[in-house]
Structures are given as structure tokens and as C-alpha cells.
Design brief:
Blueprint (H helix, E strand, L loop, with lengths): L1 H31 E7 L2 E8 L8 E7 L4 E8 L6 H18 L6 H20 L6 E9 L2 E7 L3 E6 L2 E4 L6 H10 L5 H6 L19 E2 L3 E2 L5 E5 L1 H4 L4 H9 L4 H15 L7 E7 L3
Antiparallel strand pairs: 1-2, 2-12, 3-4, 4-5, 5-6, 6-9, 6-10, 7-8, 7-11, 11-12
Helix pairs in contact: 2-3
Keywords: Membrane, Transmembrane, Transmembrane helix
InterPro entries: PPM-type-like_dom_sf, PPM-type_phosphatase-like_dom
Protein name: Serine/threonine protein phosphatase
Length: 282
């Protein structure tokens, strides 16, 4: 009888373990990937990985209204506390402000207003503590890409098998590159500088003034738009990303493939990684 009880006990334990494993993988799939949104012909695919971090500080959103299709990624600064709060607050503010937008000519003021509100809100929540977030946002309206960015998250248009980078990185690296061009320092010193990846502008920064707001960009039929946090482009080379975006797959599958490639690298210091792919419909 005791042996039967022991066997039953082990069966219960194994069943619980099996159930936990199933739930674990289901949760991973839900966290890293949301279903593609397909509205008015525009496909929106997204993917996300926590990487090697203890928490997910990236936050993203997308939606479509009568004005256009909107996508945003914010990357809470992992080196500072309150990264998750900052990224969540910023994306929430931008998403709400976009829902209130009624005229296509108001995109520049929309970007500026949402950025100012986000920065003020983050600083108020920080109450003197450290924290902040990068942010990149895109709105597609009548075949035109409108965008804005702050920090080092990136937005690019993939056209004819090549990337057209929209924004610049607001990091010390950009300043060092300018010094190299002016002859103030060597290229080697710039590339090995320990502060080259430090941000010089972000939301939640006391000295924040404005975002980088780009000129409207006319899209072509086969273009694909990619928004990505640094966890994506630091893990994958431009050549690797080009290969993935060349695939004739739905935006959902391309985004999923990008995140799978990031995870497959198994980098020791892999950051949170988030990507949004938009294509067709313009």
C-alpha cells in the first residue's frame, strides 16, 4: 500500500510539473508576440523578448483611427530605476493623444505635445529619483510616414533590400563621431569610449527640450517600416536584419523571426528587445 501511495504521489508531482512547463511556454509566447493587426490594408506585426534582463522595460502600442495608423516603442532605461514606469507612461500618453487627433496637419504639434506631457509626467513620478525612457513613434497617413524620436530606439524604412534610417541616435557616440570628423579625436578612441552609448536626450530628463521630428516621408508600395529598440539592432547586424525583411512573409511572421534570431544569439548581456513591422496599405 505504501508503494502505491508513493507512486500516486510522484504522479501528482510530475503532472504538476508538466502543467507548469506548458503554462510557462504559453506565457512566453504571449509576452513576446501579439497577433498581427490588419486594418485598412496595413499589416502590423510585433514581437518582444525580455532578453537577459530581470524585467521587461520595453513597452509598445499600435492603433488605427480615421487619421492614420500609429505605432510606438519606448525603451525604459535599464541602467536606471523606474525604466518600466517611464516607458509605460510615455506610450500611454502618446496613445491617448493620438486617439484625440482629428487633423492630419497636426502631427508635428501632436509629437511635441505628447513628448512634453510624457517628460513632465515621468519627472513628477520620479520625484527626484533616476529614470527615463527612449521613444520612437510613427504615424502613416495617406501613404506618408510621419515620425519622431528621442534616445536610441530606431525607425527605418526597408526599400529595395536596403535600410533608409530615419532618425539619429541621441547618444554620446553621435557627438564622438562629430569630433572624429573635425579631427578632435581618433576613430579608434571614439569606438572604444566607455561612454559612447550613454544617452544625451530622453524622456524623464531634466534637460529635455524636444524630440527629433522628421520631415514627412513618402512611402512606396513595397516598403516595410521597422521600429526597434536597441536590444534588436545591438544583437543583429544590418545584414541579418536585411535578410529577415527580404522574406515574403506577413509582418507578423517577420517580427516573430527577428525576435527568434535575437534569442538564438544567446548574448550574455542581451537587453530587452522589441520590434514593430508595418507594411502594405499605402
Amino acid at each position: 500500500m505504501q508503494q502505491i501511495k508513493d507512486i500516486e504521489h510522484y504522479i501528482v508531482i510530475l503532472s504538476a510539473l508538466f502543467l507548469w512547463i506548458i503554462l510557462h511556454f504559453v506565457r512566453r509566447a504571449l509576452v513576446r508576440h501579439q497577433p498581427t493587426t490588419k486594418i485598412k490594408g496595413i499589416q502590423i506585426g510585433n514581437g518582444q523578448s525580455i532578453g537577459r534582463r530581470e524585467e521587461q522595460d520595453d513597452y509598445f502600442s499600435s492603433s488605427t483611427t480615421a487619421v492614420g495608423t500609429f505605432a510606438v516603442i519606448a525603451d525604459g532605461i535599464s541602467g536606471l530605476s523606474n525604466g518600466r514606469m517611464a516607458s509605460t507612461l510615455a506610450v500611454t500618453v502618446f496613445s491617448k493623444e493620438f486617439q484625440l487627433l482629428e487633423k492630419t496637419e497636426d502631427f508635428t504639434s501632436f509629437f511635441a505635445k505628447a513628448a512634453t506631457q510624457s517628460n513632465s509626467g515621468i519627472l513628477a513620478n520620479l520625484s527626484g529619483s533616476n529614470g527615463g525612457t527612449t521613444l520612437v513613434v510613427a504615424v502613416i497617413s495617406s501613404g506618408i510616414l510621419h515620425w519622431a524620436a528621442v534616445g536610441d530606439s530606431m525607425i527605418s524604412v526597408f526599400r529595395d533590400s536596403e535600410f533608409i534610417t530615419m532618425n539619429s541616435k541621441h547618444t554620446v557616440e553621435t557627438l564622438l563621431r562629430e569630433k572624429v570628423l573635425s579631427g578632435e579625436m581618433t576613430k579608434e578612441d571614439a569606438e572604444t569610449s566607455p561612454v559612447r552609448k550613454h544617452l544625451v536626450n530622453y524622456l524623464g530628463y531634466e534637460g529635455f527640450r524636444n524630440m527629433e521630428i522628421g520631415e514627412p516621408f513618402t512611402l512606396q508600395k513595397k516598403d516595410k517600416i521597422m521600429l526597434a529598440s536597441d536590444g534588436v539592432y545591438d544583437a543583429l547586424s544590418e545584414v541579418e536584419l536585411e535578410h529577415l525583411l527580404k522574406q515574403k512573409k506577413p509582418a507578423e511572421e517577420i517580427a516573430d523571426d527577428i525576435i527568434e534570431q535575437v534569442d538564438a544569439k544567446g548574448l550574455r548581456n542581451q537587453d530587452n528587445a522589441t520590434v514593430i513591422i508595418l507594411e502594405k496599405g499605402w
